[in-house]
Design goal:
Length: 233
C-alpha cells in the first residue's frame, strides 16, 4: 500500500509548505486579557460560557494559537481575521466547515485535555485529537463504527482495544471535519483504516494518552510538516 504521507518536524516560521500541523501542549495558566483581546465577540461569548477554568484556559489558548498561525500564513493581524461557516453537506445550513473570510487557505482546529492541533492546507483538511478512552466507552462506541473497523477493534487484545479505537476515532473525526459534516454523517459509512477516494489520512505524534490524525483532500501522497512551537514575529 502506498504511504499517504511522510512526517517531517520543523520548529521554524512557516515557509509556504502545503500541509502543516501544529501539535501543541496548552499551558496550565490561562491567557492574559491582552492575549485574549484578539478573539472576536463570538469567541469571547464561548469562552465565558465554560463552567470550568481548565476548559476556559484550553479554549482561550487554542483559539489565540489558531489566530497566531493563520496570521503568520496570511499576513493579516490576528485580531483582523474573520471566520464563517461553509454550508453543511448534509443539510445545506451554515454550520459546515469553518473557513476564513476571505479564504486564502483551509484550516482545522482540535483540542483535547491539554493537547491542541492546528492543521492548514490549500485543500480541505481536518485534524482531531482523542484521549485514549476507558474500556467501557470503547465497548459502547465501537458498535457505531464501520463493520471492518469494528472487527479491527474487537480482534485486538483487550488491553490494546482502547488505543486501537482511539486511532480509528481520531481518523474518522478528522475526516468528518474535513468534509464539513461533523457527526451528522453516519459513522458506519466510511472505513478509515486506509485512505478513501480523494482523501489521505496520516496518524500524528500526540504523546502518551492521546491519538491524533489529519485528513487532507488529496489524490497524491504529501508531506505533513509538524510544528511544536507557534510562529513568532
Amino acid at each position: 500500500m502506498e504511504a499517504a504521507a511522510t512526517l517531517r518536524s520543523d520548529t521554524g516560521t512557516p515557509d509556504g509548505h502545503d500541509v502543516r500541523v501544529w501539535v501543541l501542549r496548552a499551558p496550565a495558566a490561562p491567557r492574559t486579557a491582552r492575549e485574549l483581546a484578539v478573539l472576536d465577540e463570538s469567541e469571547h461569548r464561548r469562552l465565558a460560557a465554560f463552567a470550568h477554568d481548565r476548559d476556559r484556559a484550553l479554549y482561550g489558548f487554542a483559539h489565540v494559537a489558531l489566530r497566531t498561525v493563520l496570521s503568520a500564513l496570511t499576513g493579516a493581524a490576528p485580531g483582523d481575521l474573520r471566520f464563517a461557516r461553509d454550508p453543511c453537506p448534509c443539510c445545506g445550513e451554515p454550520h459546515g466547515r469553518p473557513v476564513l473570510v476571505p479564504a486564502p487557505l483551509e484550516f482545522s482546529l482540535s483540542h483535547s485535555r491539554g493537547l491542541v492541533l492546528i492543521g492548514t492546507a490549500s485543500t480541505p483538511i481536518g485534524v482531531d485529537a482523542e484521549l485514549v478512552p476507558e474500556p467501557q466507552v470503547v465497548e459502547e462506541l465501537t458498535r457505531m463504527l464501520h463493520p471492518a473497523e469494528r472487527t479491527e477493534v474487537e480482534s485486538a487484545p483487550a488491553d490494546d482495544r482502547p488505543t486501537v479505537f482511539a486511532r480509528l476515532w481520531a481518523r474518522k473525526e478528522a475526516y468528518l471535519k474535513g468534509l464539513g459534516t461533523g457527526l451528522g454523517r453516519d459513522l458506519a459509512a466510511d472505513d478509515v483504516r486506509a485512505d478513501l477516494p480523494g482523501w489521505r489520512f496520516t496518524d500524528l505524534p500526540a504523546g502518551p494518552g492521546h491519538r491524533a490524525a489529519v485528513a487532507v483532500a488529496s489524490r497524491a501522497p504529501h508531506e505533513v510538516l509538524i510544528h511544536r512551537t507557534l510562529p513568532t514575529g
